[in-house]
């Protein structure tokens, strides 16, 4: 096999059964995503069972964690944008048999991830009080949120680095190593969370510190893998030195994906702030619980479409646009079928899931969570289709189309619908949220299909040799 082409990359470019290879390669990503979802539930699980805490205190603590999750998604949008750029660029270079270029771009994207992580940490530490107040937190919720924000900010360097590292490896068909590192982090996080909350009685701060430790402890192993991997490309120190020309070429891949996720999560932040200020901690905590189940079921979708995007990018780099289209279609069939099955099961057992997560001490929290979850799951298959559009947008290196699709779904449809329904039909109460959500998800599909017609499956990375000197 040619240098720089791993066994899995060979399957992506030449294997007979695309859907089977896609499914097999997506399984470690699915496990990885499931771990992330469970990781996000660990804090709520133990916080909801804090010994001696009043129900109002628990509601405030869960609401504070919910605020952080929404804000953290917005912050991590930059890392997600960098990871999408890394996946598209490295996959196309690998498909084009240019491992030298893949190494150079991967190293510089990892350098950018560290710089971005440092800057974001400093911003949050300096202005967490402002962000928390702006998002509608008050009284005990405000105090919990500020402490949680400050502590969790310390993990951002490692988290953003991991997102880009994971994308670089996935672009080569390596999905197992990032998953194993993530599993290790969760296995550390769970007992630490129990110990800090149940034994040391550290409450919200204990939950934050255990998560930070779990997310950072294996970063050194990622660095070692990048330099000493036996199966996949190894980077050298000079790969991490920024070059002006390379950074300019990375920019068109990274900024649309970053803006796309930023505007999406900023919109969700506005919606969560609206729910918290209009309906209070219990309803906010209920929506957070429902979103946990929804995110859990989205994991197979994200896993398969992530690998689908890699298949698309690699085959475009290998000048096989017809095979790239095949990957896109088979990814769509897989995600839709699996989602329909998963949603059918989840609807039947949604109440058990809610009680498992938040306990049975607050009947109103349980009732609203179960009600919201039903409506949330109804359009989950629609989101599977939508996410597959994002796979071909990102895999082809045309994340600008993804930006248009995401922006229209949230800012052109959901948020205007939310406030319009709230103004015209105040008697709908908090049901305006899922009504606007479901309508926007369905209409957004037609817009995404329109954008899909503009796709161009040509190589978008620069294959010319770069003789430019690095920055000094």
Explain what you see.
With 472 residues, the protein is mostly helical. The protein has one domain (7-452). It contains 17 helices and no strands. It has helices spanning 7-14, 18-47, 55-95, 99-134, 139-152, 156-170, 176-199, 203-216, 219-228, 244-279, 281-317, 321-348, 350-358, 363-378, 380-395, 399-424, 431-452. Helix 2 packs parallel to helix 7. The longest helix is centred in the first third of the chain and has 41 residues, at 55-95.
List the helices and strands and how they pair.
Layout lengths: L6 H8 L3 H30 L7 H41 L3 H36 L4 H14 L3 H15 L5 H24 L3 H14 L2 H10 L15 H36 L1 H37 L3 H28 L1 H9 L4 H16 L1 H16 L3 H26 L6 H22 L20
Q: How much of the sequence is in beta strands?
A: under 5%
Radius of gyration: 22 Å
* SS field, number of helical segments: 17
The tally of structural domains comes to 1
Summing up helix and strand content along with how strands pair, one would put the structural category as mainly alpha
Q: What's the order of the H and E elements?
A: HHHHHHHHHHHHHHHHH
Mean pLDDT: 84
Which bin fits the share of residues in helices?
over 70%
Summarize the biggest pleated sheet: none
Summarize it.
The chain is mainly alpha-helical and 472 residues long. It has 17 helices and no strands.
Summary keywords:
mainly alpha, 81% helix, 17 helices, 472 residues, globular
